[in-house]
Amino acid sequence: MLISVYLTTHNRLELLRRAVNSVLSQTYKEIELVIFDDGSTDGTQEYLLDLAKASHNIVYVRSEISVGACRGRNEAISRARGEFITGLDDDDYFTPTRIAEFVESKDILFSRNPAAFLFTDFLIERASGRVRRTLPDVVSLDMLKLSNFVGCQIFTETSRLRTVGGFDAAMPAWQDYELWFRLVEQFGLGRKISRDGTYVVDVESANHRISLGGASRYVSAYETFCEKHGRLFTHKDARLLKLNVFAYPQAHFPLSEVLASARYGVRAFTKYAEIYLKKKARLL
């Protein structure tokens, strides 16, 4: 049974090598890796052309100009031949048994209470070592109204990603989160299969720190998310979702937002106050 892995890359050759090697070294071998090169100019093209010639399970797609990660992922998904699919970012990598664990658990997608997709806990890699990010066992639509409790990658049927339209390139950020939301809305719950972290997020190699300019991108993503899915949100839901924006270290978070949250109940006010005080403590 063929499993597809989609990956987009742009001028991160050394990190890309590690990501690719983590797929090629999986214990489960029936994998095709579909790589979209988003206009790289750092030797990525030559590396991937050689790799595709040497390995039958590498599908290389290139755009001469950068079109963005979402369009790249959607193009890779359109080329995928596997019945099931998962993704990988070029600055992250898999542990060796990740695909095998998903394959062993794939029947959960078709059980009496079918899952929209499967996911696992993940590992955060820093210079000081790895820590595991523990996620809920089950993720519902109500939970996703509050935050992305899934992480950045899932495993599902390829046809399901195509049915919901793939990644929305109009989202300024939160593209993966917004796609998980649509999948759960249409196909059911998201289910965790393992407490082992089989996906490694390398926060040292990639610049995951949000800038002041970047903070406005997340505000825009929040607004777009609410416009797109507002029919499913109460005012309280929208208020709690907005906390995801304020949680970014450089995002401006005025006290007036905390006070305004009180109209939506104790839960909303408590969460707002908690994030506000944590941000204040980091500034002191």
From TrEMBL:
KW Calcium (keyword) present: no
Entry's Gene Ontology molecular function annotations: hexosyltransferase activity
InterPro entries, per database record: Glyco_trans_2-like, Nucleotide-diphossugar_trans
Species whose genome carries this gene: Paraburkholderia phenazinium
CDD domains: Glyco_tranf_GTA_type
Protein name as catalogued: Glycosyltransferase involved in cell wall bisynthesis
Ranges for domain Glycosyltransferase 2-like: 4-104
Keywords: Transferase
